[in-house]
Amino acid sequence: MSGSRDATREWRVEVDRNRCLGTGACVYAAPSIFDLVDGVATVIGPVDGTDEALADIVAECPTEALRLVRSGD
Ligand code: SF4
């Protein structure tokens, strides 16, 4: 079961609400995936774990509030 075709189902982004400062950088970079709700980043769209741009957004969060994880991990 490798399932690269199921990338959007196998991955998710976790937001550490205690770390997010609501800079909006992730929302600006990927408005189809992130939105700000009550000043905190919230995942609103499907996540493709093979998307390098998304991996960069996660890595560049200034407070390290984002984590790209496999569902089930
Ligand atoms: S880039 Fe990081 S700190 Fe800024 S809104 Fe997104 S999760 Fe929050």
UniProtKB/TrEMBL annotation:
Residues 11-39 form the 4Fe-4S ferredoxin-type domain. Keywords: 3Fe-4S, Electron transport, Iron, Iron-sulfur, Metal-binding, Transport. Signal peptide: none annotated. PROSITE patterns: 4FE4S_FER_2. It holds the Pfam family Fer4_15. The keyword Transmembrane does not apply. Its cofactor is [3Fe-4S] cluster. It comes from the Bacteria. GO terms for molecular function: 3 iron, 4 sulfur cluster binding; electron transfer activity; iron ion binding. SUPFAM superfamilies: 4Fe-4S ferredoxins. Ferredoxins are iron-sulfur proteins that transfer electrons in a wide variety of metabolic reactions. This is Ferredoxin.
